From TrEMBL, chain A:
UniProt keyword Transport present: yes
Swiss-Prot/TrEMBL keywords: Electron transport, Heme, Iron, Metal-binding, Signal, Transport
Signal sequence interval, chain numbering: 1-21
UniProt cross-references to SUPFAM superfamilies, sorted A to Z: Cytochrome c
GO MF: electron transfer activity; heme binding; metal ion binding
Domain Cytochrome c span(s) in chain numbering: 22-101
Name listed for the protein in its UniProt record: Cytochrome c553
Automatic annotation (TrEMBL), chain B:
InterPro entries referenced in this protein's UniProt entry, alphabetically: FAD/NAD-bd_sf, FAD/NAD-binding_dom, FAD/NAD-linked_Rdtase_dimer_sf, FCSD_central, FlavoCytC_S_DH_flav-bd, FlavoCytC_S_DH_flav-bd_sf, SQRD, TAT_signal
Pfam families: FCSD-flav_bind (PF09242), FCSD_central (PF21706), Pyr_redox_2 (PF07992)
Domain FAD/NAD(P)-binding residue range list: 34-157
Keyword entries, A-Z: FAD, Flavoprotein
Domain Sulfide dehydrogenase [flavocytochrome c] flavoprotein chain central: 167-280
Recorded coiled-coil stretches: none
GO MF entries: flavin adenine dinucleotide binding; oxidoreductase activity
Protein's name according to its UniProt entry: Sulfide dehydrogenase (Flavocytochrome c) flavoprotein subunit
The species this protein was found in: Azonexus fungiphilus
Amino acid sequence: MKAFTHAAALCLLAAASTAGAADANLGRNLAATCANCHGTNGKAVPGSGMSSLAGESKANLLQKLADFKSGDKPASIMHQIAKGYTEAQLTLIADYYAAQK
Amino acid sequence: MMLMKRRDFLKIGAAAGTMASLYGCAAGNKAGGHVVVVGGGYGGATVAKYLRMWSQGSVQVTLVERNPSFISCPISNLVIGGTKTMEDITVSYDNLQSKWGVRVIQDDVVALDAVKRSVKLAKGGSLSYDRIVLSPGVDFMFDQIPGLDNAAAQQKILHAWKAGPQTVALRQQLESMKDGGVFAIAIPKAPYRCPPGPYERACLVADYFKKNKPKSRVVILDANEDVQSKKGLFVKAWADLYKDQIEYRPNSEVKDVDVASNTAILEFDKFKADVLNVIPPHRAGNIASQSGLKLINNRWVDINWLSMESTGTPSVHVIGDAIFPAPTMPKSGHMANQHGKLAAAAIINLLAGEEPNPAPVVMNTCYSFVDAKNAIHVASIHQYDTATKLVQPVKGAGGVSAARNELEGKAALGWARNIWADMLA
Protein backbone atom coordinates (compact mmCIF):
# COMPACT_ATOMS: atom_id res chain seq x y z
CA MET A 1 0.00 0.00 0.00
CA LYS A 2 2.85 2.30 0.92
CA ALA A 3 4.61 1.39 -2.31
CA PHE A 4 1.41 2.04 -4.20
CA THR A 5 1.03 5.57 -2.78
CA HIS A 6 4.65 6.24 -3.66
CA ALA A 7 4.06 5.04 -7.21
CA ALA A 8 0.90 7.09 -7.51
CA ALA A 9 2.75 10.17 -6.34
CA LEU A 10 5.50 9.59 -8.91
CA CYS A 11 2.92 9.21 -11.66
CA LEU A 12 1.22 12.40 -10.53
CA LEU A 13 4.55 14.20 -10.65
CA ALA A 14 5.17 12.97 -14.16
CA ALA A 15 1.64 13.94 -15.16
CA ALA A 16 2.09 17.39 -13.65
CA SER A 17 5.24 18.02 -15.62
CA THR A 18 3.58 17.03 -18.88
CA ALA A 19 0.32 18.85 -18.12
CA GLY A 20 2.23 22.12 -17.86
CA ALA A 21 2.64 22.91 -14.15
CA ALA A 22 6.39 23.29 -14.44
CA ASP A 23 8.86 22.07 -16.99
CA ALA A 24 11.43 19.59 -15.67
CA ASN A 25 14.14 21.70 -17.33
CA LEU A 26 12.91 25.10 -16.18
CA GLY A 27 16.14 25.92 -14.32
CA ARG A 28 18.23 24.96 -17.34
CA ASN A 29 16.05 27.06 -19.65
CA LEU A 30 16.12 30.10 -17.36
CA ALA A 31 19.87 29.86 -16.86
CA ALA A 32 20.32 29.77 -20.64
CA THR A 33 18.93 33.32 -20.83
CA CYS A 34 22.15 34.45 -19.05
CA ALA A 35 24.48 32.51 -21.35
CA ASN A 36 24.66 35.20 -24.07
CA CYS A 37 26.97 37.20 -21.80
CA HIS A 38 28.10 34.66 -19.19
CA GLY A 39 28.85 31.75 -21.53
CA THR A 40 27.14 28.47 -22.33
CA ASN A 41 26.36 26.77 -18.99
CA GLY A 42 27.97 29.72 -17.22
CA LYS A 43 31.44 29.25 -18.66
CA ALA A 44 32.43 32.70 -19.91
CA VAL A 45 35.13 33.11 -22.56
CA PRO A 46 38.40 33.61 -20.65
CA GLY A 47 39.67 37.17 -20.90
CA SER A 48 36.32 38.52 -22.12
CA GLY A 49 35.73 40.48 -18.93
CA MET A 50 32.47 38.63 -18.18
CA SER A 51 32.21 36.59 -15.01
CA SER A 52 31.81 32.81 -15.18
CA LEU A 53 28.88 31.56 -13.11
CA ALA A 54 29.56 27.82 -13.39
CA GLY A 55 30.35 26.20 -10.05
CA GLU A 56 29.72 29.33 -7.96
CA SER A 57 27.90 28.53 -4.75
CA LYS A 58 24.16 29.01 -4.71
CA ALA A 59 24.39 31.31 -1.69
CA ASN A 60 26.95 33.55 -3.40
CA LEU A 61 24.97 33.78 -6.59
CA LEU A 62 21.73 34.60 -4.79
CA GLN A 63 23.45 37.20 -2.62
CA LYS A 64 24.95 38.92 -5.67
CA LEU A 65 21.60 38.91 -7.45
CA ALA A 66 19.86 40.31 -4.36
CA ASP A 67 22.50 43.04 -4.10
CA PHE A 68 22.05 43.92 -7.77
CA LYS A 69 18.29 44.10 -7.24
CA SER A 70 18.53 46.31 -4.14
CA GLY A 71 21.23 48.49 -5.67
CA ASP A 72 23.74 47.61 -2.94
CA LYS A 73 26.09 46.25 -5.56
CA PRO A 74 26.95 48.90 -8.18
CA ALA A 75 26.40 47.73 -11.74
CA SER A 76 26.13 49.05 -15.27
CA ILE A 77 23.41 46.64 -16.33
CA MET A 78 22.83 43.75 -13.87
CA HIS A 79 20.69 45.88 -11.53
CA GLN A 80 18.24 46.25 -14.42
CA ILE A 81 18.35 42.61 -15.51
CA ALA A 82 18.07 41.02 -12.04
CA LYS A 83 14.75 42.82 -11.54
CA GLY A 84 13.25 40.99 -14.51
CA TYR A 85 13.20 37.61 -12.76
CA THR A 86 11.13 36.39 -9.80
CA GLU A 87 12.84 35.16 -6.63
CA ALA A 88 11.79 31.61 -7.52
CA GLN A 89 13.36 31.96 -10.97
CA LEU A 90 16.61 33.36 -9.56
CA THR A 91 16.77 30.42 -7.16
CA LEU A 92 16.39 27.96 -10.04
CA ILE A 93 19.10 29.81 -11.98
CA ALA A 94 21.46 29.78 -8.98
CA ASP A 95 20.77 26.07 -8.45
CA TYR A 96 21.61 25.35 -12.06
CA TYR A 97 24.88 27.28 -12.12
CA ALA A 98 26.00 25.97 -8.73
CA ALA A 99 25.64 22.44 -10.15
CA GLN A 100 27.83 23.17 -13.21
CA LYS A 101 31.45 22.13 -13.05
CA MET B 1 33.67 15.22 -22.27
CA MET B 2 30.57 15.19 -24.42
CA LEU B 3 30.73 11.42 -24.66
CA MET B 4 31.09 11.05 -20.90
CA LYS B 5 28.05 13.21 -20.37
CA ARG B 6 26.06 11.30 -22.93
CA ARG B 7 26.94 7.97 -21.35
CA ASP B 8 25.91 9.28 -17.92
CA PHE B 9 22.69 10.56 -19.40
CA LEU B 10 21.95 7.17 -20.97
CA LYS B 11 22.54 5.47 -17.64
CA ILE B 12 20.24 7.86 -15.84
CA GLY B 13 17.70 7.64 -18.64
CA ALA B 14 17.73 3.86 -18.54
CA ALA B 15 17.39 3.85 -14.76
CA ALA B 16 14.49 6.30 -14.88
CA GLY B 17 12.82 4.23 -17.60
CA THR B 18 13.06 1.05 -15.53
CA MET B 19 11.65 2.85 -12.52
CA ALA B 20 8.82 4.31 -14.50
CA SER B 21 7.86 1.00 -16.09
CA LEU B 22 7.97 -0.65 -12.66
CA TYR B 23 5.50 1.92 -11.42
CA GLY B 24 3.41 1.73 -14.56
CA CYS B 25 3.55 5.33 -15.72
CA ALA B 26 5.25 6.84 -18.75
CA ALA B 27 8.63 8.45 -18.18
CA GLY B 28 9.05 10.14 -21.54
CA ASN B 29 11.56 12.77 -22.61
CA LYS B 30 13.46 10.66 -25.01
CA ALA B 31 13.55 13.02 -27.93
CA GLY B 32 14.61 11.73 -31.32
CA GLY B 33 14.14 12.77 -34.89
CA HIS B 34 15.62 15.13 -37.42
CA VAL B 35 15.45 18.92 -37.25
CA VAL B 36 16.44 21.09 -40.20
CA VAL B 37 17.56 24.63 -39.36
CA VAL B 38 17.49 27.20 -42.16
CA GLY B 39 19.94 30.05 -41.61
CA GLY B 40 23.06 30.08 -39.44
CA GLY B 41 22.86 33.54 -37.90
CA TYR B 42 22.29 34.46 -34.26
CA GLY B 43 19.06 32.45 -34.09
CA GLY B 44 19.85 29.45 -36.31
CA ALA B 45 23.33 28.70 -35.00
CA THR B 46 22.02 28.87 -31.42
CA VAL B 47 19.06 26.56 -31.98
CA ALA B 48 21.31 24.06 -33.79
CA LYS B 49 23.86 23.90 -30.97
CA TYR B 50 21.31 23.85 -28.15
CA LEU B 51 19.23 21.13 -29.82
CA ARG B 52 22.32 18.92 -29.91
CA MET B 53 23.52 19.89 -26.43
CA TRP B 54 20.19 19.62 -24.62
CA SER B 55 19.12 16.40 -26.35
CA GLN B 56 22.51 14.86 -25.50
CA GLY B 57 22.96 14.23 -29.19
CA SER B 58 19.74 12.28 -29.66
CA VAL B 59 18.16 14.82 -32.02
CA GLN B 60 19.80 14.96 -35.46
CA VAL B 61 20.34 18.50 -36.72
CA THR B 62 21.08 19.75 -40.23
CA LEU B 63 21.88 23.43 -40.63
CA VAL B 64 21.57 24.98 -44.09
CA GLU B 65 23.47 28.25 -44.43
CA ARG B 66 24.38 30.06 -47.63
CA ASN B 67 27.60 31.67 -46.35
CA PRO B 68 30.82 29.77 -45.62
CA SER B 69 31.23 31.41 -42.20
CA PHE B 70 29.24 33.48 -39.75
CA ILE B 71 29.66 37.25 -40.06
CA SER B 72 28.19 39.32 -37.25
CA CYS B 73 25.98 42.36 -37.81
CA PRO B 74 26.57 43.57 -34.23
CA ILE B 75 30.08 45.11 -34.12
CA SER B 76 30.03 45.51 -37.94
CA ASN B 77 29.48 49.26 -37.51
CA LEU B 78 33.00 49.36 -36.02
CA VAL B 79 34.28 47.91 -39.29
CA ILE B 80 32.44 50.67 -41.14
CA GLY B 81 33.95 53.19 -38.69
CA GLY B 82 37.38 51.73 -39.39
CA THR B 83 38.41 50.42 -35.96
CA LYS B 84 37.64 46.72 -36.51
CA THR B 85 38.23 44.40 -39.44
CA MET B 86 36.03 41.78 -41.13
CA GLU B 87 38.23 39.13 -39.56
CA ASP B 88 37.21 40.44 -36.11
CA ILE B 89 33.53 39.77 -36.82
CA THR B 90 33.84 36.44 -38.68
CA VAL B 91 33.44 33.08 -36.91
CA SER B 92 33.73 29.59 -38.40
CA TYR B 93 30.99 26.94 -38.38
CA ASP B 94 33.60 24.22 -37.73
CA ASN B 95 32.81 23.72 -34.03
CA LEU B 96 29.12 23.25 -34.73
CA GLN B 97 30.13 20.27 -36.86
CA SER B 98 33.12 18.78 -35.07
CA LYS B 99 32.16 19.48 -31.46
CA TRP B 100 28.37 19.41 -31.56
CA GLY B 101 27.68 17.04 -34.44
CA VAL B 102 25.55 19.46 -36.45
CA ARG B 103 25.57 18.65 -40.16
CA VAL B 104 26.28 21.99 -41.85
CA ILE B 105 25.36 22.32 -45.52
CA GLN B 106 26.40 25.41 -47.46
CA ASP B 107 23.40 25.96 -49.66
CA ASP B 108 20.17 27.92 -49.99
CA VAL B 109 16.71 26.60 -49.18
CA VAL B 110 14.48 27.58 -52.10
CA ALA B 111 11.16 25.93 -51.21
CA LEU B 112 9.36 24.55 -48.18
CA ASP B 113 6.73 21.81 -48.41
CA ALA B 114 5.12 21.81 -44.97
CA VAL B 115 2.79 18.92 -45.85
CA LYS B 116 5.52 16.55 -47.02
CA ARG B 117 7.85 18.05 -44.43
CA SER B 118 10.71 18.66 -46.79
CA VAL B 119 12.74 21.53 -48.21
CA LYS B 120 14.30 21.91 -51.61
CA LEU B 121 17.91 23.07 -51.89
CA ALA B 122 19.25 25.47 -54.53
CA LYS B 123 22.11 23.15 -55.51
CA GLY B 124 19.64 20.31 -55.99
CA GLY B 125 18.22 17.64 -53.74
CA SER B 126 15.99 17.99 -50.75
CA LEU B 127 15.95 17.40 -47.00
CA SER B 128 13.11 15.90 -45.01
CA TYR B 129 12.46 16.80 -41.40
CA ASP B 130 10.37 16.03 -38.35
CA ARG B 131 10.50 19.68 -37.37
CA ILE B 132 12.06 22.66 -39.09
CA VAL B 133 13.35 25.95 -37.71
CA LEU B 134 13.42 28.93 -40.07
CA SER B 135 15.87 31.61 -39.02
CA PRO B 136 16.26 33.48 -42.29
CA GLY B 137 16.54 37.01 -40.93
CA VAL B 138 15.12 39.67 -43.20
CA ASP B 139 14.92 40.35 -46.91
CA PHE B 140 14.66 43.86 -48.31
CA MET B 141 11.56 45.27 -50.01
CA PHE B 142 13.44 46.96 -52.83
CA ASP B 143 10.16 47.49 -54.68
CA GLN B 144 9.36 50.19 -52.11
CA ILE B 145 12.28 52.23 -53.49
CA PRO B 146 11.91 51.75 -57.27
CA GLY B 147 15.29 53.20 -58.25
CA LEU B 148 17.00 50.62 -56.05
CA ASP B 149 15.12 47.68 -57.51
CA ASN B 150 17.97 46.45 -59.72
CA ALA B 151 21.35 44.86 -59.11
CA ALA B 152 23.46 47.73 -60.50
CA ALA B 153 21.77 50.29 -58.22
CA GLN B 154 22.25 48.03 -55.22
CA GLN B 155 25.99 47.89 -55.94
CA LYS B 156 26.22 51.66 -55.70
CA ILE B 157 23.68 52.66 -53.04
CA LEU B 158 24.39 50.22 -50.24
CA HIS B 159 22.37 49.08 -47.26
CA ALA B 160 25.20 47.29 -45.39
CA TRP B 161 22.39 46.01 -43.17
CA LYS B 162 23.55 42.42 -43.55
CA ALA B 163 27.16 42.09 -42.55
CA GLY B 164 29.39 40.86 -45.38
CA PRO B 165 30.59 42.27 -48.70
CA GLN B 166 28.38 45.36 -48.28
CA THR B 167 30.11 46.17 -44.97
CA VAL B 168 33.46 46.24 -46.77
CA ALA B 169 32.04 48.19 -49.71
CA LEU B 170 30.51 50.90 -47.52
CA ARG B 171 33.81 51.29 -45.67
CA GLN B 172 35.55 51.72 -49.05
CA GLN B 173 33.04 54.37 -50.14
CA LEU B 174 33.73 56.31 -46.93
CA GLU B 175 37.49 56.02 -47.38
CA SER B 176 37.24 57.24 -50.99
CA MET B 177 35.00 60.16 -50.12
CA LYS B 178 36.68 63.58 -50.27
CA ASP B 179 36.87 65.67 -47.12
CA GLY B 180 33.93 68.05 -47.05
CA GLY B 181 31.58 65.37 -48.36
CA VAL B 182 28.27 64.22 -46.92
CA PHE B 183 27.34 60.74 -45.73
CA ALA B 184 23.58 60.22 -45.52
CA ILE B 185 21.96 57.22 -43.87
CA ALA B 186 18.26 56.54 -44.51
CA ILE B 187 16.29 54.61 -41.87
CA PRO B 188 13.04 52.83 -42.78
CA LYS B 189 9.87 52.99 -40.72
CA ALA B 190 9.88 50.68 -37.69
CA PRO B 191 9.89 47.75 -37.25
CA TYR B 192 13.30 47.12 -38.75
CA ARG B 193 16.33 45.05 -37.76
CA CYS B 194 18.39 46.48 -34.88
CA PRO B 195 16.55 49.66 -33.81
CA PRO B 196 19.63 51.54 -32.46
CA GLY B 197 21.93 50.33 -35.28
CA PRO B 198 21.52 53.24 -37.71
CA TYR B 199 22.14 55.82 -34.99
CA GLU B 200 25.24 53.90 -33.89
CA ARG B 201 26.46 53.88 -37.49
CA ALA B 202 25.93 57.63 -37.75
CA CYS B 203 28.04 58.10 -34.60
CA LEU B 204 30.88 55.87 -35.78
CA VAL B 205 31.05 57.43 -39.24
CA ALA B 206 31.03 60.88 -37.58
CA ASP B 207 33.85 59.75 -35.29
CA TYR B 208 35.85 58.66 -38.34
CA PHE B 209 35.15 61.98 -40.08
CA LYS B 210 36.07 63.99 -37.00
CA LYS B 211 39.48 62.33 -36.83
CA ASN B 212 40.21 61.98 -40.55
CA LYS B 213 37.93 64.21 -42.65
CA PRO B 214 36.91 67.03 -40.32
CA LYS B 215 35.00 69.06 -42.89
CA SER B 216 32.66 66.16 -43.68
CA ARG B 217 29.13 65.70 -42.34
CA VAL B 218 26.61 62.97 -41.49
CA VAL B 219 22.90 63.40 -42.18
CA ILE B 220 20.36 60.97 -40.74
CA LEU B 221 17.20 60.70 -42.83
CA ASP B 222 14.79 58.96 -40.48
CA ALA B 223 11.41 57.79 -41.82
CA ASN B 224 10.22 57.70 -38.21
CA GLU B 225 9.07 60.72 -36.25
CA ASP B 226 11.77 60.30 -33.63
CA VAL B 227 14.87 58.34 -32.62
CA GLN B 228 13.75 54.72 -32.18
CA SER B 229 16.09 53.52 -29.43
CA LYS B 230 18.26 54.97 -26.63
CA LYS B 231 17.02 58.40 -27.68
CA GLY B 232 18.33 60.50 -24.80
CA LEU B 233 21.77 58.88 -24.95
CA PHE B 234 22.14 59.27 -28.72
CA VAL B 235 20.87 62.84 -28.76
CA LYS B 236 23.33 63.70 -25.98
CA ALA B 237 26.21 62.05 -27.86
CA TRP B 238 25.34 64.01 -31.01
CA ALA B 239 25.24 67.28 -29.03
CA ASP B 240 28.39 66.58 -26.99
CA LEU B 241 30.59 64.87 -29.56
CA TYR B 242 29.29 65.57 -33.04
CA LYS B 243 27.73 69.03 -33.00
CA ASP B 244 29.51 69.93 -36.23
CA GLN B 245 29.13 66.51 -37.83
CA ILE B 246 25.67 65.03 -37.31
CA GLU B 247 22.35 66.42 -38.43
CA TYR B 248 19.17 64.49 -37.55
CA ARG B 249 16.09 64.81 -39.75
CA PRO B 250 12.94 63.03 -38.53
CA ASN B 251 9.92 62.26 -40.77
CA SER B 252 12.22 61.90 -43.77
CA GLU B 253 11.16 58.73 -45.51
CA VAL B 254 13.09 57.88 -48.64
CA LYS B 255 10.55 57.05 -51.36
CA ASP B 256 12.98 56.64 -54.24
CA VAL B 257 16.56 57.27 -55.28
CA ASP B 258 18.26 58.76 -58.30
CA VAL B 259 21.22 56.44 -58.59
CA ALA B 260 23.24 58.48 -61.08
CA SER B 261 23.33 61.56 -58.85
CA ASN B 262 23.33 59.72 -55.49
CA THR B 263 20.14 61.50 -54.50
CA ALA B 264 17.52 60.36 -52.00
CA ILE B 265 14.01 61.36 -53.02
CA LEU B 266 11.73 62.18 -50.10
CA GLU B 267 8.05 63.04 -50.26
CA PHE B 268 8.53 66.81 -50.63
CA ASP B 269 12.29 67.10 -50.80
CA LYS B 270 15.47 65.68 -52.27
CA PHE B 271 18.82 65.07 -50.67
CA LYS B 272 22.08 64.58 -52.56
CA ALA B 273 24.87 62.82 -50.71
CA ASP B 274 28.44 61.81 -51.54
CA VAL B 275 27.89 58.46 -49.85
CA LEU B 276 24.24 57.45 -49.72
CA ASN B 277 23.39 54.53 -47.43
CA VAL B 278 19.76 53.47 -47.78
CA ILE B 279 18.33 50.79 -45.50
CA PRO B 280 15.18 49.70 -47.35
CA PRO B 281 12.10 48.51 -45.47
CA HIS B 282 12.29 44.79 -44.81
CA ARG B 283 10.19 41.74 -44.06
CA ALA B 284 10.72 38.15 -42.97
CA GLY B 285 13.36 36.43 -45.09
CA ASN B 286 11.93 34.98 -48.32
CA ILE B 287 11.66 31.35 -47.21
CA ALA B 288 9.52 32.49 -44.25
CA SER B 289 7.46 35.12 -46.06
CA GLN B 290 6.89 33.18 -49.32
CA SER B 291 5.99 29.70 -48.02
CA GLY B 292 2.37 30.24 -47.07
CA LEU B 293 2.98 30.72 -43.34
CA LYS B 294 0.55 33.02 -41.55
CA LEU B 295 1.98 36.54 -41.65
CA ILE B 296 1.11 39.73 -39.78
CA ASN B 297 1.03 42.95 -41.84
CA ASN B 298 1.99 40.73 -44.76
CA ARG B 299 5.59 40.91 -43.52
CA TRP B 300 6.30 39.01 -40.30
CA VAL B 301 5.50 35.45 -39.23
CA ASP B 302 2.88 34.96 -36.53
CA ILE B 303 4.21 32.49 -33.97
CA ASN B 304 3.15 30.72 -30.77
CA TRP B 305 5.32 32.03 -27.93
CA LEU B 306 5.47 28.69 -26.10
CA SER B 307 7.23 26.99 -29.00
CA MET B 308 8.09 29.62 -31.66
CA GLU B 309 5.94 27.44 -33.96
CA SER B 310 4.08 29.13 -36.81
CA THR B 311 0.46 29.57 -35.72
CA GLY B 312 -0.85 28.27 -39.03
CA THR B 313 1.67 25.62 -40.04
CA PRO B 314 2.52 22.76 -37.66
CA SER B 315 6.14 21.64 -37.20
CA VAL B 316 7.50 24.87 -38.70
CA HIS B 317 9.20 27.04 -36.07
CA VAL B 318 10.37 30.55 -36.90
CA ILE B 319 12.84 32.60 -34.86
CA GLY B 320 14.77 35.86 -34.96
CA ASP B 321 14.08 38.94 -37.04
CA ALA B 322 11.54 37.12 -39.25
CA ILE B 323 8.80 36.94 -36.61
CA PHE B 324 6.16 39.43 -35.58
CA PRO B 325 7.69 40.49 -32.28
CA ALA B 326 6.02 40.56 -28.87
CA PRO B 327 5.35 44.02 -27.37
CA THR B 328 8.50 46.21 -27.15
CA MET B 329 10.68 43.32 -28.34
CA PRO B 330 13.45 44.48 -30.68
CA LYS B 331 14.71 42.63 -33.73
CA SER B 332 18.20 41.91 -32.43
CA GLY B 333 20.86 39.23 -32.58
CA HIS B 334 20.68 38.79 -28.83
CA MET B 335 16.93 38.24 -28.98
CA ALA B 336 17.31 35.79 -31.89
CA ASN B 337 19.72 33.77 -29.73
CA GLN B 338 17.08 33.71 -26.97
CA HIS B 339 14.40 32.63 -29.44
CA GLY B 340 16.75 29.85 -30.50
CA LYS B 341 16.99 28.51 -26.95
CA LEU B 342 13.23 28.77 -26.41
CA ALA B 343 12.66 26.86 -29.65
CA ALA B 344 15.32 24.22 -28.84
CA ALA B 345 13.75 23.46 -25.44
CA ALA B 346 10.25 23.31 -26.93
CA ILE B 347 11.24 21.11 -29.86
CA ILE B 348 13.02 18.59 -27.64
CA ASN B 349 9.87 18.33 -25.50
CA LEU B 350 7.60 18.06 -28.54
CA LEU B 351 9.76 15.37 -30.16
CA ALA B 352 9.50 13.42 -26.90
CA GLY B 353 5.71 13.76 -26.92
CA GLU B 354 5.66 16.35 -24.13
CA GLU B 355 4.25 19.86 -23.88
CA PRO B 356 6.63 22.80 -24.24
CA ASN B 357 7.74 24.73 -21.15
CA PRO B 358 4.61 26.70 -20.13
CA ALA B 359 6.59 29.62 -18.67
CA PRO B 360 9.31 30.74 -21.09
CA VAL B 361 11.43 33.84 -20.47
CA VAL B 362 13.56 35.73 -22.97
CA MET B 363 15.70 38.81 -22.47
CA ASN B 364 17.57 41.33 -24.56
CA THR B 365 20.79 43.24 -24.12
CA CYS B 366 21.94 45.55 -26.83
CA TYR B 367 25.06 47.68 -26.77
CA SER B 368 25.75 50.55 -29.17
CA PHE B 369 29.02 52.40 -29.60
CA VAL B 370 28.84 56.18 -29.78
CA ASP B 371 32.54 56.44 -30.64
CA ALA B 372 35.36 53.92 -31.00
CA LYS B 373 35.47 53.29 -27.23
CA ASN B 374 32.32 54.46 -25.46
CA ALA B 375 29.10 52.48 -25.53
CA ILE B 376 25.53 52.60 -24.21
CA HIS B 377 23.01 49.81 -23.68
CA VAL B 378 19.33 48.96 -23.55
CA ALA B 379 18.08 45.83 -21.77
CA SER B 380 14.68 44.19 -21.28
CA ILE B 381 13.25 40.96 -19.86
CA HIS B 382 10.12 39.36 -21.28
CA GLN B 383 8.04 36.81 -19.34
CA TYR B 384 5.27 34.65 -20.78
CA ASP B 385 1.81 35.93 -19.87
CA THR B 386 -0.99 33.35 -20.00
CA ALA B 387 -3.71 35.99 -20.49
CA THR B 388 -2.28 37.50 -23.68
CA LYS B 389 -0.25 34.43 -24.70
CA LEU B 390 2.69 36.75 -25.36
CA VAL B 391 6.02 37.28 -23.70
CA GLN B 392 5.50 40.66 -22.04
CA PRO B 393 8.19 43.08 -20.89
CA VAL B 394 8.62 43.07 -17.11
CA LYS B 395 7.68 46.49 -15.75
CA GLY B 396 10.36 48.10 -13.59
CA ALA B 397 13.10 45.89 -15.05
CA GLY B 398 15.54 46.60 -17.85
CA GLY B 399 16.43 50.09 -18.99
CA VAL B 400 19.24 52.09 -20.54
CA SER B 401 22.70 53.24 -19.46
CA ALA B 402 22.98 56.16 -17.07
CA ALA B 403 25.57 57.68 -19.43
CA ARG B 404 27.94 56.57 -22.20
CA ASN B 405 31.18 55.16 -20.84
CA GLU B 406 34.25 53.10 -21.71
CA LEU B 407 33.35 50.30 -19.33
CA GLU B 408 30.30 49.55 -21.43
CA GLY B 409 32.46 49.73 -24.54
CA LYS B 410 34.52 46.89 -23.07
CA ALA B 411 31.34 45.09 -22.02
CA ALA B 412 30.03 45.36 -25.59
CA LEU B 413 33.12 43.59 -26.96
CA GLY B 414 32.93 41.02 -24.13
CA TRP B 415 29.26 40.46 -24.96
CA ALA B 416 30.21 39.79 -28.58
CA ARG B 417 32.88 37.24 -27.72
CA ASN B 418 30.54 35.39 -25.36
CA ILE B 419 27.47 35.33 -27.55
CA TRP B 420 29.52 34.15 -30.55
CA ALA B 421 30.87 31.36 -28.36
CA ASP B 422 27.37 30.60 -27.06
CA MET B 423 26.24 30.09 -30.65
CA LEU B 424 29.26 28.59 -32.32
CA ALA B 425 31.92 27.33 -29.89
